[in-house]
Known about the structure:
Layout: H1 21-33, H2 35-46, E1 66-72, E2 75-82, E3 87-91, H3 105-110, E4 114-118, H4 138-152, E5 155-161, H5 163-173, E6 178-184, H6 190-201, H7 205-219, H8 228-231, E7 240-244, H9 253-262, E8 266-270, H10 278-281, H11 286-297
Parallel strand pairs: 3-4, 3-5, 5-6, 6-7, 7-8
Antiparallel strand pairs: 1-2, 2-4
GO molecular function: hydrolase activity
Keywords: Hydrolase
Protein name: Alpha/beta hydrolase
Amino acid sequence: MVETDSDPNVTGSGVEPPVSPEVRHRFSLLEQYAPGEGARWATELWCTPPVVEMSLRMPPGVPPSTPVEAFWEGHRIAGASWGAGEPVYLVHGWGGCQAHLGTFIKPLVEAGYRVIAIDLPSHNDSEPGDLAPGRTTLIECAKAVQAVVDEFGPARAIIGHSLGAKAAAFAVAWGTSAQRLVFLAPMGNFPVYIDMFTARHGFGPRIRDGLSRRLEQRIEMPLADTDISVIAPRADNPPLLIIHDPDDPDTPYETSEEIVGIWPNAKLVTTKGLGRLAHYRLLRHRPALNAALEFISD
């Protein structure tokens, strides 16, 4: 379970913008008098990627890219490509962008791989899916990953951060070809996040239960089935490397331990001392980068 601060409006690393007192007050009233309306509003907020306070610029040394695109169910996914060789796909997390995994690009290109980074649905330059602009779901993100790999060829590896790791896991479970998977602080099990979301927005069990029902209707599957642990025991899963820091307040380190324990041919690399911003510092952490490169090239 992810611990939260004494102020329920501040959860995780605090990279996401805070929820205003006005929004929290309105949710508290809806919890009492109109929980159905509160659940409807909460569902739209849940499906809206946040504005993450991190740079959209690529790190120094990344060579010029070539724009690429793919389509899933008629929706455009924007991306960029570097180098030549077997493809390695980079999949950012919720509210992220291509640049968040930019540190991996130059070393992978120098190692002889073609690197393809994408923007997930309703993120940056990619189009939304079936929901309103600015909204998406894990399932749509997984479909987008699947479409990109179908377009540009079987993956030597897919490197996914947070929700991007979960999207990659589901794409592979649906038949996407990948020889290796690298998960950076993969998104944990669903109850962790709905608890955090409930605390941040100041509503109670009536809206929480309605939100869960609406989300299951939207993705057409039980929320419990969205956990990586559900698909981890599959015998045909590719080898997996998870890199995670126990200080990470945004995704539970214990979930990574659980996944490695049941995923065939999986390994966990533990980083140390990345602090409250571990969830994002991991993306620029040299030992994490080196471990991923070694695993992909093995």
